[in-house]
Amino acid sequence: MGVGTRLLQDTVVALQALSLYGVSTYAKSGAASKVSLQSGGDFQQDFHVGPSNRLLLQHVPLPQVPGEYSIEVSGKGCVYLQTSLRYNVQPKQESAPFLLHVHTSPETCEDSKAHKVFDIGINVSYTGERRVSNMVIIDVKMLSGFIPVKSSVRKVGARVNCLSEDICPFHFITGTTFSFSFIFKTSCKCLWLTRGL
Questions:
Q1: With CB atoms 3.0 to 4.6 Å apart as the test, which of 35, 107, 161, 183 could cross-link to 149 if both were Cys?
Q2: Which Pfam families does this one have (predicted)?
Q3: Is the pTM of this model over 0.70?
Q4: Domain of residue 151, residue span
């Protein structure tokens, strides 16, 4: 028996179950129900379910949660009641396992040369609970119109025994600060440069 046949049989069984449910809960025209929801306080909400709106979802937010509520149903027919609780637990702030400091040289772009060539220095150290970390990826994004100088990238790779310019396996970061820098230069002139994010 293939997967397609099994899925088809499951669909048939589900349709049969839905049909039986519809037969047993179907109310002839004219049958109507009233659902009253109330709390110990002054909150009360009435829902009317009849032939014209029996497929309509009616809902109301509860004014106080947690709280005690009572439901009273009268009339003829079938109604389906459901409560839905939504909540958001903010994750507790944990201390970051890494310390990262990025700076440029020169620090400002007042000199016209800094618009064409500048250095980016990166200092990183591991501050987590373990002795070392081997789960480190430092992803340096390029500013629009700039590219890294290949020789400066190769110098960093030689320090950490990289296989290529972007693959450096088996390198561990400890509590000692690891510092490196790249040289960036303009590849094409861009007007209206904005601050990098």
A1: 183
A2: A2M_recep
A3: no
A4: 98-186
